[in-house]
């Protein structure tokens, strides 16, 4: 009877701890996944595939789940977002059981500098993010192996973009010695880094014939482990994303805005009309709209601000079906 009671108590304590861990981190995990999605939308703003909502479901159950380059990016950026937010929240003191990583403080880091200060605790973020994000992958097949690999690439991206910050010491700022620590970059940096990795993602060729037998699982694991954990991997080629496909949740590029003129456009942005419209068999339509905004504001003593209303014509470009009549002047073609 005694033994039985003991076992019961042990089980209860375990379950309780798991539930608590879940509650402590779940809001950070959710916020992190959300920031991954927002970064995805930013990074792909002028691409044909622009991170549509359907693509963001990380569920492993849909038979229509794709395993292409874009899937790889979604997994990596989400996983990175979760790790990033957990790490930052840890540094902000949101969790009782975690703080700065000062494990190397006092040690020599390199020529003329020592570890010191408060390094962001990416080790903590990595462990917790892995527990939460990788747990979504329940399968044992090649797709699951691909997703797990890309989840890890996302976490490596956060680690790989950490910045070394230093502080000088010495008589009147002579900087004879420095103490340095590692700090998270802006999340944008992680996004830029992963977008590069996306362009150079590697195709692993084994989907066909790789069943679920133990031997095949070994072969699958081996193929993935031969690729560096920093690189994104995919199994399938991507469609061209020009046409709408409702089954796959793809909107197509008709109706999308593109950029043509403008100060300071990147090469990628300047080519967006060709990429989104021209190469998809669509025409580019120019639409003008007038915007009204406050301007020339003056401060009057005392205390009022008076502004003028300035009208400005803005020109935007959109992809439309060829042969469609352009709107006549005066016709309502407003947009947000
Ligand atoms: C962690 O940070 C995010 C925003 O960056 C916030 O929404 C979330 O609530 C934080 N989590 C905790 C436990 O404080
Ligand atoms: C949508 O994609 C599916 C899967 O690739 C394909 O079978 C189907 O024909 C496509 N539908 C359209 C309208 O292109
Ligand atoms: C133009 O872009 C560069 C780099 O993206 C940036 O540093 C600069 O501030 C931008 N200039 C303007 C006027 O927006
Ligand atoms: C223009 O269209 C929008 C929505 O399509 C509508 O809400 C608005 O009232 C229209 N304006 C005019 C002047 O027709």
TrEMBL record:
Keywords: Developmental protein, Disulfide bond, Extracellular matrix, Glycoprotein, Lipoprotein, Secreted, Signal, Wnt signaling pathway. It is found in: Secreted, Extracellular space, Extracellular matrix. PANTHER family: PROTEIN WNT-8B, WNT RELATED. Ligand for members of the frizzled family of seven transmembrane receptors. Its main location: secreted. Residues 1-21 form the signal peptide. GO terms for biological process: animal organ development; canonical Wnt signaling pathway; cell fate commitment; embryonic pattern specification; neural plate regionalization; neuron differentiation. Belongs to the Wnt family. This is Protein Wnt. One of its GO terms (molecular function) is frizzled binding. InterPro entries: Wnt (IPR005817), Wnt8 (IPR013301), Wnt_C (IPR043158), Wnt_CS (IPR018161). PROSITE patterns: WNT1. The lineage of its organism: Eukaryota, Metazoa, Chordata, Craniata, Vertebrata. One of its GO terms (cellular component) is extracellular space.
